[in-house]
Write a structure and sequence with these properties.
about 210 residues; alpha/beta; Rossmann fold; seven-stranded mixed sheet; about 35% helix; globular
Length: about 210
């Protein structure tokens, strides 16, 4: 499968189980998307490049350590959470979305491929009480709103190379959004990691959210 090979070219160290899980995504998402529209019908043919590989852009800026707790805010059909959960089987992912039918698709896909390191919650982020090392998101809202929404969910206990905080995937111009954060922010151009034209305007953005240890 040409699109799957695209993933393997950038992540050559995957084991057989991870490759099996990734290869299953096309059929599962195509089937579910015909019933519940979680990916644009025009875009489902670009599943691996526009959704799976894009999600894995986060893995190019951080290697989550074993035992890390990550919340995927506004996961939709499971992005970036499901691809990241495949790549990091020793990391726990909690996928949250306010739209029940989207969480249903993500749950069914994860169960079908045998993911053991994911949990799901149909709720608004304001209702989520858990603490996590990182919150990840595919930019479901402007950056200041994202930070405000998830600040309460960031654990004070650090054990990764990056401080705890928010890592989101953004497209286009982000200068106005990142300006308020100054020294708390890092940005990466995904075109530095992936050669496809789709990534020319895509970025990964990290905001450190500091808390004192309890």
């Amino acid at each position: 499968m040409e699109q799957l090979q695209q993933i393997l070219n950038y992540f050559p160290g995957l084991n057989e189980e991870q490759i099996r899980q990734l290869s299953s995504l096309e059929e599962l998402y195509t089937d579910w998307n015909s019933k519940i529209n979680v990916i644009s019908r025009k875009d489902i043919g670009n599943l691996y490049e526009h959704h799976v590989l894009h999600s894995l852009g986060i893995a190019k800026v951080i290697r989550f350590r074993e035992g890390t707790q990550v919340m995927d805010l506004g996961t939709g059909g499971g992005f970036p959470g499901i691809p990241l959960a495949i790549l990091f089987p020793d990391v726990q992912f909690h996928l949250v979305d306010s739209i029940g039918k989207k969480i249903k698709v993500a749950t069914e896909v994860a169960q079908a491929i045998g993911l053991k390191n994911v949990t799901f919650c149909h709720s608004r982020v304001e209702e989520e009480k858990g603490l996590f090392d990182f919150v990840v998101s595919r930019a479901v809202m402007p950056l200041p709103d994202l930070v405000k929404a998830c600040r309460k969910n960031i654990s004070p206990h650090q054990h990764n190379a990056l401080p705890n905080g928010l890592i989101c995937l953004k497209g286009g111009e982000v200068e106005n959004e990142i300006r308020p954060f100054k020294h708390e922010i890092l940005t990466w151009d995904l075109k530095d990691f992936f050669n496809e034209e789709f990534f020319v305007t895509k970025k990964a953005v990290f905001v450190a959210i500091n808390k004192r240890k309890a």
